[in-house]
Amino acid sequence: MIKELVHDEAVLSTPCEPATAEDADLAQDLVDTLASIDDAVCLAANQVGVTKAVIVYQDDNGTPHVMYNPKVLAGFAAAKVEESCLTHEEPVRVTRFAKIKVSFDELVDGQLKTRRRDYTGWTAQMIQHMADHCKGKLV
Description:
alpha+beta, 44% strand
């Protein structure tokens, strides 16, 4: 189901609770909502008013990927970049890493399975942005 974006800083700055397998409907709502927004590439649950640690991002082919409870474990090659956000009006300059190690959960056969992966470039930047949302960090 497509959800409305939330711009309330009180909601966006609230750290998200851990997600569970029961949040699968929320994950689908994020996928649907992201697909409905022109030029959008990533979305966190608190951006639709739900303070659960669930994010979705699109890869270079436009395929959505859902992460439950994402955590950036390590980052390499920090640089200042300019980012925009669906729920923040002005672009801002932030420090992001070109390569990251991430721990997250993935829904497999109705259960969350922990994964660890490395990401680089644009995908790494999106994941860092969304992980910040999960921590209640506003850019």
